[in-house]
Amino acid sequence: MRVHVVSDVHGNSTALARAGDGADALVCLGDLVLFLDYADHSRGIFPELFGVEKADLIVELRTARRFAEARELARSLWHGMDRDAAIEGAVRKQYAELFAAFPAPTYATYGNVDIPKLWPEFARQGTTVLDGERAEIGGLVFGFVGGGLPSPMRTPHEVPEEEYAAKVAALGDVDVLCSHIPPDVPELCYDTVARRFERGSSALLDAIRATSPRYALFGHVHQPLARRMRIGATECVNVGHFASTGTPWVLEW
């Protein structure tokens, strides 16, 4: 059995269309949407709406951890606009391309920049969306937990810690624990390029210690200090920043 796993697709529909080649199934751990490309500030919803110069500025502020100033800039840019309508219209365009690129079967969960309420419009037959739910793939039980936790970035799909923990608990024992964000381990949460810690989940870490799945798979941190480590019997793996690599992580058994 061969499963390909991707995360942090961020608009890369071309590579996504090839991600399932040679695999029995594709697993996607979220962040389909591209709001702003930190490597190329001309790409994404933000520069489409406000231009590259403003994108340069907001990246500079966020990278310097001047989050209050970044939020104030964003508020000023959105003034007089229907923010929700503008974002949803742009996201729908991206989702139309991205969901069309999914092979069958695909098992997917949300990232912190996704908009879950829109997914039912685009998920075709052969794409199974799971959040706080399990699926059997090739005889192994996969558990899925979508979204992120509250952060200074205030991305669209951040859920309260109690709600997130409840989704983790609902999975019970699984062979492969799939989430968008990593367990709360410093080496897995630190981004060496952004030079900051991203939010990891203590509930995921507790579940790994308590139930010892074979694998814990996640993304979210684009350039992690550590891409994999063992926690007890569990192999914890950041499956990679698919938007830049275009290469899925491979799980075979």
Automatic annotation (TrEMBL):
A Pfam family that the UniProt record links to this protein: Metallophos
InterPro entries in UniProt: Calcineurin-like_PHP, Metallo-depent_PP-like
SUPFAM superfamilies per UniProt: Metallo-dependent phosphatases
Residues in Calcineurin-like phosphoesterase domain copies: 1-224
This protein's name: Metallophosphoesterase
